[in-house]
Amino acid sequence: MKKYIPLALRLLVAIILIQTLRFKFSAHPDSVYIFEKVGLEPVGRISIGILELLAGILLLIPKTVWVGATLTLGIIGGAMIMHLTQLGIEVKNDGGVLFITAIVTFILSAIILYIHRKDIPFIKKS
């Protein structure tokens, strides 16, 4: 059971990251609105989408889990900062779902990185 929890966490974060890509890559009006509001439309929307796709894939490859989790922390940390400084908690009457999803994804990524901390090559093994 213990070995399945980390895999389930990785799958959950990868699914969250990858399922949002259809909004970014199809220029969904809500996604365009968000990135226009923070001044990153369209280059930021596409670039962040590519980085989220890469992070999702890296989370699924055992040797690169730590890289995917680190990348996810950076991306989602940036999203949380944008929510707190420019977008607000609630975006287009979503009830804060987008922000809460970001928080959950950030926390799960931090847990994944902690679980896989021994896989990080430049961290001293003890």
Describe this structure in words.
This protein is mostly helical. Helix content is 71%, strand content 0%. The protein is built from six helices and no strands. It has helices at 4-19, 21-25, 29-37, 43-60, 65-87, 97-115. The longest helix is centred in the middle third of the chain and has 23 residues, at 65-87. The radius of gyration is 15 Å and the shape is elongated. 26% of the residues are buried. The mean pLDDT is 95. InterPro entries: DoxX.
Record keyword descriptors for this entry.
mainly alpha; DoxX-like family protein; membrane; 6 helices; single chain; 126 residues
Shape: elongated
Give the mean pLDDT. 95
Low-confidence stretches: none
**Helical percentage:** over 70%
Specify Rg, calculated over alpha carbons.
15 Å
Number of helices: 6
| Helix-strand makeup class | mainly alpha
Tell me the β content.
under 5%
Question: What is the CA-CA span between the terminal residues?
Answer: 25 Å
User: How many structural domains does the protein architecture include?
Assistant: 1
> What is the H/E order?
HHHHHH
Concise structural overview:
The protein is built from six helices and no strands. By secondary structure, it is mainly α.
Give me the secondary-structure topology.
Blueprint: H1 4-19, H2 21-25, H3 29-37, H4 43-60, H5 65-87, H6 97-115
Helix pairs in contact: 1-4, 1-6, 4-5, 5-6
